[in-house]
Amino acid sequence: MTDAVSCASHFHWVSFARSDAGRVRDINEDACLDEPAHGRWAVADGMGGHAVGDLASRLVIDKLKQMPAAANLTLGLAQARAQLLDANRQLRDEAVQRQVQRIGSTVVVLLACDRFCGYLWAGDSRIYHCRQGQLRQLTRDHSQVEAMRALGQLTDEEARNHPAHHIITRAVGATDHLALDEDAIEVADGDVFLLCSDGLSNELSDADILATLTAPTPLDCRRVTDELVNLALARGGRDNVTAVVMRAEDPHASDKTLLNPTY
């Protein structure tokens, strides 16, 4: 794709992405998309063994790169969904050809359009949103442990340390029918988003992430991304680690510190 999306973002976006194999694994089965000029970012975490996990995540990201221009956010999300459904079909066919049970990948996708960001996901890769020193996880893991936590069967701490935390219930390529969750958020000047694989979120607490994302202003996306990945590696780096950090800058905004001190 060579042209910017038709639904231009109201904001100027600055972003940076980094992916690392980690301290234990030889192959990096994560992949990511970082296209601020097109207003789209994604993380995919492949699985399946036999050197096919990286194939799955690359296919997912390649499909998202091929998205056509969209006139609005609703259409953009629909196109992303269509690309992921196509990736799902291809991965199901690939598994049959390779005679393996499944070749799959998690996915989180974030699209910027006008004053909004829309996002969709499957699996346990995450999107975090940071505004005015407050961190919120926008996605909810599609995993057995998250389902138990949501039902009150596990505390947050028990869920974090549960031995089955890696068992996910949705992924691109896992089944013939791909279920994707979708939502949107209105963006404000200075908002920061983090897309990451579980290799990062399993090693870092929300407090770790918040402290890094709220480092001295103005936020340097490259430095923050490196700090997040390096911290996950220092904590053990037991899985592939991927982070994509982006910041929204309103080029039309005047000094909000003077105009609206409470913002």
UniProtKB/TrEMBL annotation:
Keywords of the record: Hydrolase
Annotated gene: prpC_1
Q: What is this protein called?
A: Protein phosphatase PrpC
Q: Which organism is it from?
A: Paraburkholderia solisilvae
Gene3D superfamilies in UniProt: PPM-type phosphatase domain
Q: Where is the PPM-type phosphatase domain?
A: 14-248
Answer yes or no on keyword Membrane. no
Instruction: List where this protein forms a coiled coil.
Output: none
EC number(s) reported in the record: 3.1.3.16
What PANTHER family would the database entry show? PROTEIN PHOSPHATASE 1L, PROTEIN PHOSPHATASE 2C
Checking PROSITE patterns in the record gives: PPM_2
